[in-house]
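Priority: medium. Attachment 1 of 2:
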């Protein structure tokens, strides 16, 4: 009986993983991100089942495809155990092992750890069709070479902000000169009596990104500051502040 139910669960994962949406699962990852130092043989993280019933969990790592499944995931990592049953109110330690790949050694590489949670089926009606509501969560996994210059604790100091005009629109750009990913989650520009919130995102190492400033007009004669928040290694929020420099390029018409 159990084998038949298990086979149905495995089939459900293969067929429905593409249809699962990101959700708040009752089985949670204790960490909101995973850091994999290049010197580590493996890293571990914990899951916690807050349900009053057991759940089946499957985990895998992909490179960037939100529609990935365990069968086509292409990341150079193995999760152990990849699939298991969690009893109610228990924790489970899971290990991730790097299988080897030619990754950059001067900067981080980002991957995504997927977790699919499947609630139990009704064993009494195992031969009948049942709807399984599957919950899928994804967290970032950062592969971090030991040869990256600078300390991650000082990553906010490696951000340089500029304001530029594109047509009638004002935009703020952030340049990340570090070898680390910086996951910005909020930002605010102030200049004189003006303030403008912007919705930033993750900035890759040695790259830049820009965002629109609504209802804002930059005056290079006025001092301007940007306050921002970002996710640190522990999944918490850290704050930073910087002077905004006017862009050296002319407005784009």
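Attachment 2 of 2:
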């Amino acid at each position: 009986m159990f084998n038949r139910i298990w086979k149905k669960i495995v089939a459900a994962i293969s067929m429905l993983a593409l249809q699962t949406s990101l959700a708040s699962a009752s089985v949670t990852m204790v960490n909101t991100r995973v850091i994999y130092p290049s010197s580590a043989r493996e890293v571990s993280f914990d899951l916690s089942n807050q349900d009053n019933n057991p759940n089946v969990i499957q985990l895998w790592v992909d490179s960037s495809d939100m529609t990935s499944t365990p069968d086509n995931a292409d990341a150079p990592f193995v999760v152990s155990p990849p699939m298991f049953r969690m009893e109610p109110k228990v924790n489970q330690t899971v290990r991730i092992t790097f299988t080897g790949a030619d990754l950059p050694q001067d900067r981080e590489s980002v991957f995504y750890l997927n977790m699919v949670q499947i609630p139990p089926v009704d064993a009494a009606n195992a031969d009948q069709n049942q709807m399984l509501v599957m919950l899928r969560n994804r967290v970032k996994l950062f592969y971090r070479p030991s040869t990256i210059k600078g300390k991650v604790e000082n990553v906010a100091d490696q951000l340089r902000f500029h304001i530029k005009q594109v047509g009638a629109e004002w935009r703020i750009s952030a340049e990340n000169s570090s070898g680390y990913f910086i996951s910005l989650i909020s930002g605010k520009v102030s200049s004189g009596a003006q303030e403008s919130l912007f919705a930033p995102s993750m900035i890759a190492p040695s790259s830049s990104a820009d965002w629109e400033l609504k209802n804002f007009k930059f005056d290079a004669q006025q001092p301007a500051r940007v306050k921002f928040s970002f996710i640190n290694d522990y999944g918490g929020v850290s704050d930073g502040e910087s002077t905004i420099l006017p862009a050296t390029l002319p407005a784009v018409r």
